[in-house]
C-alpha cells in the first residue's frame, strides 16, 4: 500500500446541482434538435423519474440519450455542446464543489469523475473542474458517427466498480494500493462503489442514500445548502 490517496466523484447532483444528462436532452429538445419537443421532454422526464427510483437500466437510458447523439453529425453536436456548457453547466459549478475538488487535486490525490452519463456530455465538464480522469459510459462511435449504442460496460451501478477497477488496472493499480480511497455520491445507485472505498461520502444525498449513510455511519456532506441564500 502506498501513501497516495484516491478521490472519486460522481457528477450529477454530486458536483453539479443538476443532472447533466437530463439537462443536455432538455437543451436539445427546447432548441428543436430532439424531434418533437413535447414528446422528447416527456421521455426525458420519465427516464429521470425511473432513475431516481432506481428502476432504470443503462440500456433503457441509452436508447434515448445515445439516440440523440446518433441523430446528428459530431461537428454539430460539438458546437451545440459548447453553447450548452456556457448556458447551463459553467454557471452551475459552485464554489463549494470547486473547493472540494481542488482540495483533493492540491493534495496530490489521484482524482477521477465516475459517472453514468456518457463521455460525450461529461468530458468537457470534467475539464471544467480540472479533473484529469473520467470514467463514464462510452458511446459507440463508428465511421465518423455515434451509433446510439453503449461501448463496453456502462458506468452504472455495479458497472462503476468494474470500470474503476479496469481504469486503475490500466495503470497497474488497484483500490488496495491507496492509503485512503474516497467516493462522493448522491445516489443509491452508487452503493456498490461506495461499499468498495475506505471513505464513502454521501454528498447531497437522496433520501434513500441518506438513510443508508446514517445507518452505516458514512459521512454526509451537503454542498448546495446555501445556493438559495446566495441567489436571494
UniProtKB/TrEMBL annotation:
Enzyme Commission number(s): 3.1.3.3
Enzyme class label: hydrolase
Record's keyword terms, sorted: Hydrolase, Magnesium, Metal-binding
Alphabetized GO MF terms: hydrolase activity
Coiled-coil features, chain-numbered ranges: none
SUPFAM superfamilies in UniProt: HAD-like
Domain of life: Bacteria
InterPro entries: HAD-like_SerB (IPR050582), HAD-like_sf (IPR036412), HAD_hydro_SerB1 (IPR006385), HAD_sf (IPR023214)
Identification of the protein by name: Phosphoserine phosphatase SerB1
Protein's organism: Achromobacter mucicolens
Amino acid at each position: 500500500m502506498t501513501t497516495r490517496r484516491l478521490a472519486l466523484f460522481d457528477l450529477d447532483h454530486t458536483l453539479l446541482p443538476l443532472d447533466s444528462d437530463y439537462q443536455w436532452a432538455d437543451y436539445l429538445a427546447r432548441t428543436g434538435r430532439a424531434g418533437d419537443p413535447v414528446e422528447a421532454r416527456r421521455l426525458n422526464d420519465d427516464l429521470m423519474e425511473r432513475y431516481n427510483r432506481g428502476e432504470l437500466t443503462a440500456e433503457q437510458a441509452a436508447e434515448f440519450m445515445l439516440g440523440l447523439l446518433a441523430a446528428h453529425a459530431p461537428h454539430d453536436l460539438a458546437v451545440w455542446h459548447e453553447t450548452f456548457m456556457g448556458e447551463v453547466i459553467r454557471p452551475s459549478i459552485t464554489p463549494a464543489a470547486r473547493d472540494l475538488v481542488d482540495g483533493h487535486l492540491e493534495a496530490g490525490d489521484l482524482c477521477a469523475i465516475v459517472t453514468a452519463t456518457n463521455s460525450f456530455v461529461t468530458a468537457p465538464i470534467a475539464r471544467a473542474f480540472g479533473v484529469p480522469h473520467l470514467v463514464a459510459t462510452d458511446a459507440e462511435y463508428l465511421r465518423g458517427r455515434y451509433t446510439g449504442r453503449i461501448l463496453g460496460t456502462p458506468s452504472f451501478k455495479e458497472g462503476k466498480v468494474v470500470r474503476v477497477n479496469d481504469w486503475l488496472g490500466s495503470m497497474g493499480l488497484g483500490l488496495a494500493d491507496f492509503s485512503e480511497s474516497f467516493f462522493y455520491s448522491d445516489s443509491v445507485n452508487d452503493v456498490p462503489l461506495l461499499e468498495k472505498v475506505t471513505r464513502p461520502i454521501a454528498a447531497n444525498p437522496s433520501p434513500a442514500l441518506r438513510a443508508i449513510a446514517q445507518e452505516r455511519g458514512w459521512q454526509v456532506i451537503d454542498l448546495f445548502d446555501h445556493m438559495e441564500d446566495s441567489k436571494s
